[in-house]
Amino acid sequence: MTTTDLPTRTTAPGRRGSDDGARLPEHVDVLVVGAGISGIDAAHHLTTRFPERSFVVLDALPERGGTWWTHRYPGVRSDSDLFTFGYSFKPWRGPSIATADEILAYLDEVVEESGLGPRIHHQHRVTAASWSTEERRWTVEVTREDTGEQLRLTAGFLWMCQGYYDHRRAHTPEWPGLDRFRGRVVHPQHWPDDLDTTGKEVVVIGSGATAATVVPALAQSAAHVTMLQRSPTFFIARPKTHELAVTLRALDVPEDWTHEILRRAHIAEGDELQRMSFETPDELRTFLLEEMRPLLPEGFDVEKHFSPTYRPWQQRLAVLPDGDLFAALREGSASVVTDTIETFTETGIRLASGEELAADVVVTATGFDLSVFGDVAFTVDGEPVVFPERVTYRGIMITGVPNMAYVFGYFRHSWTLRADLVSAFVCRLFEHMAERGATVVVPTLRPEDADMPLLPWADPDNFNAGYVMRSQHLLFKRGDREPWTHLKEYVEERDSLPAADLDDGLVYS
Ligand SMILES: Cc1cc2nc3c(=O)[nH]c(=O)nc-3n(C[C@H](O)[C@H](O)[C@H](O)COP(=O)(O)OP(=O)(O)OC[C@H]3O[C@@H](n4cnc5c(N)ncnc54)[C@H](O)[C@@H]3O)c2cc1C
């Protein structure tokens, strides 16, 4: 019997860059939860804009980086360009698409340059947060992942940068016959250090960005890799290095200019694709299919394998750097099968069509399970916060939850573009509170919102990725008017968030 491998990760010596041994302070002005892209962004903003305020960053993992530490599968890389997935304040010097190691090295530089190391405490999982109106602060329960020790601290403000999925458990559907399969089954989220697929028959189940990354990477040395998908995804081949980057670097343009120019170029290209996805989706579908057709082997059934039933960008559009997946398909080291699994057998997978796929290794690139606020149990004055009964304030705060902000990035642009906007918003909020002499801020529906319809977190017509649809019932709601909406596009929020009226829908004391 084979089950999905669990993480076997060890901490690389000398890469922690933070003060795991230090005791937590009893109280901080701000507690940042998470030391991934978003938490490091928040900490950078805090340290530069409010050097006098005390803060710590707590993360359950042994090292910084979140997603980029957890995921170690072969070929792991960004899908977005790093000029927008990197920070506005720190020029990216590499090619547009970066490996996980390159992203971690970039984050290390930010931690080092901003002096954040001593602020970050790893292996500290936040389990509960209780707000007391009387004390005007949060009391936060923390479990040390390495020792099991229970710790407690208080915080004036909680900045939740916990990402959107459970780092401990990956999403793996139940398949008939899995227990009789004699090969190995692994999930990309928990890639085992000892797995060698050289010369092996590999089946990758899934069609998203992870499958599209792992298939060409494994195809370099495996006997053959089959991408087995139930339904297709839209792919777009993009040069790993933007052509403008070649020109700018040849002209010896300063790195911060190059960064800004390439950032704008990538944003403009992303905006155009988004605009087309809403205004002329059929045209965009045709464009995407016609772009990939010449890159695929003769006779490849593009409509069957790469033309999804959904509108382009209704789920993430997966980028293929230099068209690497298409190259593997052309070379014959990889193939695509669109079918459903009937059962696992001792030696592979039998499909609904009757076809059998032989496999030594099966990779389940089947996605994530959403984690709502890092599974932290929130209470306000002793009452548990039931998030599905609450409403978002601009996708940054939650009604009735005082002094708490959260980061959720874009689906259709780089996550970090929004993390940066949220950081700037929270800093502006802190300044506004100081000007008003307030220490508490609570998003509160206004009298005119009394009959406002409460809508599900995501409108499936806008975005319907599996992990979102599976978890809608756990998530907070949105309203039908400002400031109770979220999941907007960058093109709108880059102007609206910096200009948002901080006295509308927020109650201060
Ligand atoms: C393989 C992969 C590739 C991706 N590529 C892209 C891309 O190219 N572009 C893009 O825009 N997005 C991409 N994403 C989405 C990606 O998750 C985000 O863009 C980004 O890395 C999220 O950063 P984050 O810091 O918000 O969250 P995460 O990276 O998830 O980090 C959250 C951190 O919070 C910690 N944490 C959570 N709960 C707790 C708790 N209760 N107590 C203490 N610590 C806690 C976690 O341990 C983790 O370290 C990708 C996702 C995956 C999985």
Task: Describe the protein.
There is one protein chain. This protein has about 500 residues and is of the alpha/beta class. Helix content is about 30%, strand content about 20%. The strands form seven sheets. Strands 1, 2, 3, 4, 5, 6, 19, 20 and 23 form a nine-stranded mixed sheet that branches. The chain has a five-stranded parallel sheet with strand order 8-17-9-10-13. Strands 14-15-16 form a three-stranded antiparallel sheet, with no helix packed on it. Helix 1 links the parallel strand 1 (about 25-35) and strand 2. Helix 5 (about 210-220) crosses helix 10 (about 325-330). The longest helix has 25 residues, at about 255-280. It is globular and about 70 Å long. The protein starts with about 25 loop residues before the first strand and ends with a strand. Mean pLDDT is about 95; it is low at about 1-20. Flavin-adenine dinucleotide binds near residues 37, 80, 163, 210 and 415.
Strand content: 15-25%
Shape by Cα distribution? globular
* Main β-sheet description: 9 strands, mixed
Instruction: State the helicity in percent bands.
Output: 25-40%
> What distance separates the N and C termini?
60 Å
Topology, number of strands:
25
Unreliable stretches: 1-19
Mean pLDDT over the full residue set: 93
